[in-house]
Amino acid sequence: MKIEETIIKGCYLITPRSFTDNRGSLTKIYHELMFQEMGLDVQFREEYFSVSSKGVLRGLHFQIPPMQHAKCVTCVSGKIFDVVVDLRKNSPTFGKHFCTELDGKTPSLLYVPEGLAHGFVSLEDDSIFLNRSTTVYSPECDRGIHWDSCGIVWPDLDLIISHKDQEMPDFENFNSPF
Fold it and tell me: What integer pLDDT is reported at residue 71 of this predicted model?
């Protein structure tokens, strides 16, 4: 696996090796020892996937302490525009964001440390997003910031956004616990 730090400290793009032959391909997206060798000594506690139509925006989500988590995300089919926002008050990139495309045809992962909000928009119908996190979902600790309050230039699509995500507080009105 190849690891590259993004502009957000502790947030990494990871490119796994893929093996292709006449049958198709095989891509290993997690291997505990490889992650440890890259300095990412994490234990994932929950894993889930979502399937989204083109234009579906999910985010910007995170969990507050004591259930904050690191996560590792990827797109296994289709394509997504993936975004993180640094919510860590003492970070030099506090309030800054990083965007990348994750494409099921070109496997890559985004490692998101604790204290970052995360979201994405599906660029194709039936995009499958896979999320692995270090804590389990906690409704009491579930939070978010408004998707359109951080200066992110989202893809020019007719966005489909849940009521919950439309009602999230703006970044400017969010008092970060990180």
Answer: 98
What residue ranges of the chain have pLDDT lower than 70? none
**CA distance to 66, 67, 76, per residue, from 8 (Å):** 22, 21, 24
How far is the C-alpha of 28 from the C-alpha of 67, rounded, in Å? 28
pLDDT at 159: 98
End-to-end CA distance of the chain: 30
**β 12-15/2-5 pair status:** antiparallel
Within 8 A by CB and 6+ apart from 149, the residues are 170, 171, 172
d(CA 99, CA 112): 12
- What radius of gyration do the chain's Cα atoms show? 16
Tokens of 39: 């300095």
pLDDT at 52: 98
In this prediction the pTM is 0.95
- Domains of the chain and any CATH numbers: 2-173 (2.60.120.10)
